[in-house]
Specification:
Layout (H helix, E strand, L loop, with lengths): L4 H4 L3 H15 L14 H15 L8 H8 L6 H17 L4 H12 L2 H4 L3
Helix pairs in contact: 2-3, 2-5, 5-6
Length: 119
Protein backbone atom coordinates (compact mmCIF):
# COMPACT_ATOMS: atom_id res chain seq x y z
CA UNK A 1 0.00 0.00 0.00
CA UNK A 2 1.52 3.37 -1.00
CA UNK A 3 2.25 5.85 1.73
CA UNK A 4 0.50 9.20 1.85
CA UNK A 5 2.57 12.35 1.38
CA UNK A 6 2.07 12.91 5.10
CA UNK A 7 3.61 9.53 5.96
CA UNK A 8 6.44 9.70 3.43
CA UNK A 9 7.62 13.04 4.86
CA UNK A 10 7.69 12.07 8.51
CA UNK A 11 4.21 12.92 9.75
CA UNK A 12 3.31 15.62 12.24
CA UNK A 13 6.93 16.51 13.09
CA UNK A 14 7.68 17.55 9.51
CA UNK A 15 4.30 19.17 8.96
CA UNK A 16 4.77 21.29 12.09
CA UNK A 17 8.11 22.54 10.71
CA UNK A 18 6.53 23.29 7.33
CA UNK A 19 3.62 25.18 8.92
CA UNK A 20 5.92 27.19 11.19
CA UNK A 21 8.10 28.13 8.23
CA UNK A 22 5.00 28.99 6.19
CA UNK A 23 3.72 31.39 8.85
CA UNK A 24 7.14 33.03 9.19
CA UNK A 25 6.79 33.88 5.49
CA UNK A 26 3.14 34.88 5.82
CA UNK A 27 3.96 37.37 8.55
CA UNK A 28 6.52 39.00 6.23
CA UNK A 29 3.94 39.47 3.48
CA UNK A 30 2.30 42.88 3.11
CA UNK A 31 -0.78 41.17 1.67
CA UNK A 32 -1.13 38.37 4.22
CA UNK A 33 0.28 39.72 7.50
CA UNK A 34 -2.66 42.07 8.22
CA UNK A 35 -4.99 39.04 8.39
CA UNK A 36 -3.02 37.82 11.42
CA UNK A 37 -2.50 41.04 13.36
CA UNK A 38 -4.60 39.90 16.33
CA UNK A 39 -4.10 36.16 16.04
CA UNK A 40 -2.68 33.78 18.59
CA UNK A 41 -0.07 32.33 16.25
CA UNK A 42 0.81 29.34 18.44
CA UNK A 43 -2.81 28.26 18.46
CA UNK A 44 -3.16 28.89 14.73
CA UNK A 45 0.00 26.91 13.93
CA UNK A 46 -1.30 24.00 16.01
CA UNK A 47 -4.60 24.09 14.12
CA UNK A 48 -2.99 24.56 10.72
CA UNK A 49 -0.61 21.67 11.37
CA UNK A 50 -3.69 19.47 11.53
CA UNK A 51 -5.18 21.08 8.41
CA UNK A 52 -2.00 20.73 6.34
CA UNK A 53 -1.70 17.14 7.59
CA UNK A 54 -5.21 16.61 6.22
CA UNK A 55 -4.18 18.09 2.85
CA UNK A 56 -1.20 15.69 2.78
CA UNK A 57 -3.37 12.64 3.46
CA UNK A 58 -2.71 12.45 7.19
CA UNK A 59 -4.97 11.42 10.07
CA UNK A 60 -7.10 14.55 10.33
CA UNK A 61 -10.32 15.60 8.66
CA UNK A 62 -12.04 18.88 7.94
CA UNK A 63 -15.47 19.10 6.36
CA UNK A 64 -16.20 21.69 3.70
CA UNK A 65 -18.80 23.18 6.06
CA UNK A 66 -16.16 23.64 8.75
CA UNK A 67 -13.68 25.24 6.34
CA UNK A 68 -16.33 27.61 5.00
CA UNK A 69 -17.59 28.55 8.47
CA UNK A 70 -14.09 29.31 9.78
CA UNK A 71 -13.22 31.53 6.81
CA UNK A 72 -16.59 33.27 6.39
CA UNK A 73 -15.76 36.21 8.64
CA UNK A 74 -12.13 36.67 7.60
CA UNK A 75 -12.60 38.73 4.44
CA UNK A 76 -10.12 36.77 2.37
CA UNK A 77 -9.70 38.13 -1.16
CA UNK A 78 -8.64 36.30 -4.30
CA UNK A 79 -5.21 38.02 -4.30
CA UNK A 80 -4.66 37.00 -0.65
CA UNK A 81 -5.63 33.41 -1.47
CA UNK A 82 -3.22 33.37 -4.41
CA UNK A 83 -0.36 34.71 -2.29
CA UNK A 84 -1.13 32.20 0.45
CA UNK A 85 -1.17 29.35 -2.08
CA UNK A 86 2.12 30.42 -3.67
CA UNK A 87 3.72 30.86 -0.25
CA UNK A 88 2.64 27.36 0.74
CA UNK A 89 3.96 25.88 -2.51
CA UNK A 90 7.34 27.58 -2.04
CA UNK A 91 7.50 26.43 1.58
CA UNK A 92 6.78 22.83 0.61
CA UNK A 93 9.47 22.95 -2.09
CA UNK A 94 11.97 24.36 0.40
CA UNK A 95 11.20 21.45 2.75
CA UNK A 96 11.97 18.80 0.14
CA UNK A 97 8.54 18.03 -1.30
CA UNK A 98 8.78 17.05 -4.96
CA UNK A 99 6.89 18.69 -7.84
CA UNK A 100 4.18 16.05 -7.89
CA UNK A 101 3.53 16.37 -4.15
CA UNK A 102 3.44 20.16 -4.35
CA UNK A 103 1.01 19.98 -7.27
CA UNK A 104 -1.22 17.62 -5.32
CA UNK A 105 -1.36 20.00 -2.34
CA UNK A 106 -2.03 22.90 -4.71
CA UNK A 107 -5.01 21.00 -6.15
CA UNK A 108 -6.29 20.28 -2.64
CA UNK A 109 -6.16 24.01 -1.85
CA UNK A 110 -7.72 25.02 -5.16
CA UNK A 111 -10.58 22.59 -4.62
CA UNK A 112 -11.42 24.53 -1.43
CA UNK A 113 -10.86 28.02 -2.83
CA UNK A 114 -14.57 28.88 -2.97
CA UNK A 115 -14.84 27.99 0.75
CA UNK A 116 -11.92 30.25 1.70
CA UNK A 117 -12.26 33.33 -0.53
CA UNK A 118 -15.06 35.41 0.91
CA UNK A 119 -14.63 38.81 -0.72
Amino acid sequence: MPQSIFESHGGFVTVRKVVSSFYDRVLESEVLAPHFAHTNMKRLIDHQTKFVSFLLGGPASFSDDHIERVHARLGITQPAFEEMKLTMMETLEDHGFNDSEVAQVEQELLSRQALIVTV
